[in-house]
């Protein structure tokens, strides 16, 4: 590493500078997530960036069985899809935008604008136009989302976050523990709050 005077910094100082840069970058990412997690950010903004993984096939809804929650709705890659209590289903409206949509990426419709449901009544599947113009899949009118900390198919870390996020059932309802437990958990330890 070269200093502003054109000299090469000693190895120890280079490591310190690299570590400081990495910590600063991590702090910026964490601050961006936490900034959008306050209860006052219910999506009142009118813009939302397109979110989601570019390589992910969007527009396929499937079902999967979870030992605790029963039958859930997933995307085409087996990732759990969620519904948000602050949205509405009649009429369909998404109130999760900006930082919320980063933590809870909307499940967007494929290029044709329609979904390919497997194990779900196709009459319950539709789309709603988001503030950015993209089309988000809905189930019984409820907009569907993924949860960013769910890194593997079958993860349900978003279940019950802030008492407003629930895995979706094939009828569009909220998943609840099949053995009579509590409706959800307050979130994943060490993760920012997910409610908006």
What would your notes on this structure say?
With 196 residues, this protein is α+β, with helices and mostly antiparallel strands. Helices cover 15% and strands 18% of the residues. The protein contains two helices and ten strands; from the N terminus they run H-E-E-E-E-E-H-E-E-E-E-E. Strands 2-1-6 form a three-stranded mixed sheet, with no helix packed on it. A three-stranded antiparallel sheet has the order 7-8-9, with no helix packed on it. The longest helix has 25 residues, at 11-35. The radius of gyration is 20 Å and the shape is globular.
Radius of gyration: 20 Å
Chain-averaged pLDDT = 74
Helix % is: 10-25%
End-to-end separation: 43 Å
Q: What overall form do the CA principal axes indicate?
A: globular
Unreliable residue stretches: 13-57, 184-196
**Strand percentage:** 15-25%
Structural class: alpha+beta
Query: Strand order of the main beta sheet, please?
Result: 2-1-6
Q: How many β strands by DSSP?
A: 10
Largest sheet: 3 strands, mixed
Helices, by number, come to: 2
User: Order of helices and strands, N to C?
Assistant: HEEEEEHEEEEE
């Amino acid at each position: 590493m070269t200093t502003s005077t054109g000299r090469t910094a000693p190895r120890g100082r280079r490591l310190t500078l690299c570590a400081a840069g990495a910590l600063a970058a991590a702090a910026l990412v964490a601050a961006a997530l936490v900034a959008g997690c306050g209860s006052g950010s219910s999506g009142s903004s009118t813009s939302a960036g397109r979110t989601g993984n570019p390589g992910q096939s969007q527009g396929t809804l499937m079902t999967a069985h979870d030992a605790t929650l029963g039958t859930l709705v997933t995307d085409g890659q087996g990732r759990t899809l969620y519904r948000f209590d602050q949205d509405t289903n009649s009429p369909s409206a998404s109130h999760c935008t900006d930082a919320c949509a980063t933590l809870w990426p909307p499940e967007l419709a494929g290029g044709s604008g329609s979904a390919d449901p497997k194990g779900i009544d196709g009459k319950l599947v539709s789309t709603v136009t988001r503030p950015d113009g993209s089309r988000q899949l809905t189930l019984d009118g409820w907009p569907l989302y993924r949860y960013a900390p769910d890194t593997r198919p079958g993860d349900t870390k978003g279940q019950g976050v802030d008492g407003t996020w629930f895995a979706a059932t094939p009828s569009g309802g909220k998943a609840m523990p099949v053995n009579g437990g509590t409706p959800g958990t307050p979130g994943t330890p060490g993760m920012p709050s997910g409610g908006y």
